[in-house]
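Lecture 7 notes: from sequence to structure.
We start with the chain below.
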Amino acid sequence: MIDATTTDVDVLVIGESLVDITTAGEEAVEMPGGGPANVALGLGRQGIAVALLTRLGTDPRGSAITRHLERSGVWVLAESFGAGPTSTAHAHILDDGSARYEFSIDWTASRERLPVRPRTIHAGSVAAFLPPGDEVVLEQIDRLAPEIVTFDPNIRPALVGDLDRARVRFEEFARRSTVLKLSDEDAGFLYPGLDETGVLTTIGRLGPRLVAITRGARGAVLAAEGRVVEVPGRRVVVADTIGAGDTFMASLVADYPALHDGDLTEQTLRDLAVRAVDAAAITVSRPGADLPWAVELSVAS
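Predicted C-alpha cells for the same chain:
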C-alpha cells in the first residue's frame, strides 16, 4: 500500500465495493465486486496509479475485498473503513449468462480531506444515487477539482429510487464530467422515449466531451465533438456478463488522459471503442468480474 501522505495518483475512484454472491443453479460463489471497485481493479491491473475511496466493514468480507484490490495494485484509502457489515450483491445468473441482482448496500462516504492529488476522478454506480453518500461524492469531486472527471451511472432501478430524482442526480454528475459512459439500459431508464441519438445529444449538451453508450453483445457507440463512431461486439463464449461495463469504463479511463489535450478524431474514437470492447470481451469470457491484466490487453490489441 502507498504511504498515506498527500500523493499524486493518476486516478481516484470513488464508489461502492461489495461482495458479489453469484448463484448459478444450486451453487453460490462469493467474489469481490461493485462497479467502482471493479473499475479500480481494472486500472490497477493496467499499471495505472489508482486509489479507491469506498466503504468497507472491518469484517472478513471487507478484508477479502481489500486483499483482492491490493493484489492488483489498488490503494484502498484508510478513510474507506467503518462500522457495520460490508455490502453484498446477490447475482442470479440466468440461462443467457446475464445477471439479476439483489442488493444489501450501505453507502456512506468520508467527508475527510483525502491524502491524494488525482489527475482523474472516476465515480458512478450506486454511489452516485444512494443517500447519504451521493452528496459526499460530489463534494469530493468539487474539493479535489481534478483535470478529468469520468462517470458511469450503472443504474440499478431498485436502488436509485424515483426516476425524476435519479435523472437530476445523473445530470449533476454529467455537468462535472469529461467522459461519460452508460449502457443502453441506463439510457432507456433515464430518458424513456428518446432514441440513442437523442440521448447522446441530450447528454452532450450537459458538458461531457466524450459520451459512450454500450450495447452489450452489439458493441458500443462513442460521440465527441460532433463525431459519432459505432463498433460491433466481439464473438466470444460468454461465461457471464458481470463486470463487462466496468471493464469498458476502465479502458476509457485508462486511455482518455493521453488524448485530453488533442483532437478526438473519428479514428481516435474508433481506437478507444475497439480497445474497450476487446477488453470487455475478455471479462465476459470468464466467470465473475475478473478484469484483464495489461499483458492480456496487449495480446488482444
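Points to note: The radius of gyration is 18 Å. The first helix runs from residue 35 to 45.
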